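TOKENISED FOLD:
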Amino acid sequence: MTLRYPKAFRDGLPADYDGLFYWEYIDHVLVPIRGIQLSDIDAVSQINRNFLTFDTSEFMKPDWDDPAAKKSGQTRTIDHLLMMAQATNGLYTFSHLDIVGKKIPRQWRWRGVTETGNLWMDDWQSAVDGREIIAPRVERWAKWSNERL
């Protein structure tokens, strides 16, 4: 199993957890080519060509907080998804939410590409319990996406 932090994973299992995906049979063929390792996006939603992805971590990831830190493959993947959405000139939008705190979000940041192709990123926000702040914003995204054809 390719888990960097197995205890942290077990302590904060994802919603509808149905077991581990043992990807060693795929992972070992990618690593020799460019050192690529598989990573995951914790959740994704798509409404009318508008995508919203989530990545969660119990603790702040070094490349989330420090622009000088080496970016993980996962962060680079999300950056490339943002650039791809930007290149579609509004045909697709892409938003991403980084969340620190598996059960109760303590910090979060939104970034994305608007329907006009503009790239944006919010500053990190903090609260003792961010659920009541994040949920309405996700709801606004869903309503906007549902109305946009």
In short: The chain has two domains: 1-38, 41-147.
